[in-house]
Amino acid sequence: MQRADLLIELGTEELPPKALKALSEAFATETLKQMDDAGLEHGAMKVFAAPRRLAFRIEQVAVGQADRDIERRGPAVKAAFDEEGHATKAALGFAQSVGLTMDQLETLETDKGAWLVAKVREPGKPLAELLPAMLEQSLQRLPIPKRMRWGNRKVQFVRPSQWLVALLGDQVLDITLLDQNAGRESRGHRFHAPASIRLASPAEYETRLENEGFVIADFDRRREMIRENAVAAGKKEGGVTSIDADLLDEVTALVEWPVAMVGHFEEDFLRVPQEALITTMESNQKYFPVLDGQGKLKNAFVFISNLDSKEPAVVISGNEKVVRPRLSDAAFFYDLDRKKTLREHAEPLEKVVFQQQLGSVADKCRRISKLAGFIAEQIGGNKALAEQAGILCKADLASAMVYEFDTMQGIMGYYLALNDGLNAEVAEAMREQYLPRFSGDVLPQTRTGMAVAIADKLDTLVGIFGIGQKPTGDKDPYALRRATLGILRIIIANKLDLDMRTLIDQAAQAYSGCELKAKDSLQTDVLEFVQGRYRAMYQEQGIDTPVILSVLAINPTKPQDVEQRIQAVAAFRTRPEAAALAAANKRVGNILSKLSGPAPEFIKQDLLQQDEEKVLFAALQKAITDSANVSDYAAVLASLAALRHPVDEFFEKVMVMADDVALRDNRLAMLAQLRGLFLKVADISELG
Known about the structure:
Alpha-Beta Plaits, 5 domains, 4-stranded antiparallel beta sheet
């Protein structure tokens, strides 16, 4: 089959920058999938994405499908012939539809009866005939939330289309897409190279666009160019360019011919919290801030121009003029907020509703304060500092800075606390309260910050569960899953000796003026929810589900204890004895579960008859002694691994359910003791 390179380029007005890469990849991969489904062989594919184009090139595509032998099923034999054996209209119609005579049809025997089948050779279709429908379908399946129409056109797309290139080898394909007729003429940079670029073949696409059109069509290459140039520009300023990955993608989607430049602003603005300055530079202006060696903001920024100007000073001056009012706004809000103390900022929170049934944000702060003080005492922190931090933790929500820059919540509280002369740990807790904000985020470092962060998240968790609005399915409007994972991560990472049952009770008690569900059911519901988060957290870490379930089966309530058990069981599972002991524990569990009451507690040594039960008894007593005062779960399981041989021998030679009641009870007591030893760590029967 003849092959040729395929190039498709859809030219448009500037595409949405945050969606550009996803649109380009979806357009290309969906088309490729359809080609695979059609049996069209091909080589490697390269995807291109720039502000005004979606494109891809596929090497060595078969110019047509190969002929295929297919089998088409017709009517059942019962319906194909009448009582006299003559072909019915159904059979004759089927034969005619496949171009065969009745004697050319075959019979297929299946479990559901016999059917007429036709084996025919289907001629392959040329790629040029198949491709228009494929491309149309690819466009329809793009992840576009809202499509638009323009002018008097009826077609809809995310932006107006301007041109279309469709080349198979050196031939232009007869394709119309979004009202654009395909040709071989692409377009370069809007200002540097507005003339069309006539392509001879797909292979020269990106080279011609770069050399003649001032367009770097390869998104990843353009992204790396921007990163390298931005870093180099920052170095020239004696600093380090701060490059946010999402912003880098967005800037890459905004320019075709990236040129890095450096602008400056007045040093006086550096008195403003740098987080606010960085936010306005990144979010509003798409600039990369420049930091010094200590991570402090310098009065410089890197921006990426979409053209190589003959007068760069004019471009730089223009960007400096644009950013100055933004920075002035931040400075104004900061100066305005510093005229009030944190306590004064907190006063309006009495009238801000946290949740209709759970009171105001000020009510929440009072609960956080009380709970944070309790937690601080438990973890070796300062109760007074934790209570003070808790009562003030949401005060900055009423500040002008946070109203204008929502990413400044907590951060502005930190600066206002320092401005008030509050204890440094209280100030730090202002911004640590929201940590971790996402998976992999940093955790609070101060004891006060840990106490407030846990208290804040726990208050929301218990309150929302208390009014019966727990998450369902994918709906989690209060982000309770994330909050719970945050609580667990803080406790485990810092090895805090905190019990979730106790914390839940303390949080519920703080809701003295609210009607929450009954204490026992609330505690049960929240603990069950926490159990589910353990599973998600450890699965993300690569821990096998049976290991997680074995620990959760015994319902431990201390997160740090759960962590130690999980790690111990994970290590135990790698031992050669683990599988046999897991199976034995499952067998023991099944036997004991069938008893009408609890298993006998005491083993009578004088009733031990067979050597195998005497050996197991001795091994059990040694294991009990060895693990009596050992808090290391891994060491306990390692010592219990020695029970494998005695347990195997016992089950092979000893009849547990003996006819003699006393003998049977004695053996059941021994099995209960065996299971109890393992249950001190986990239910390892889950490993089987």
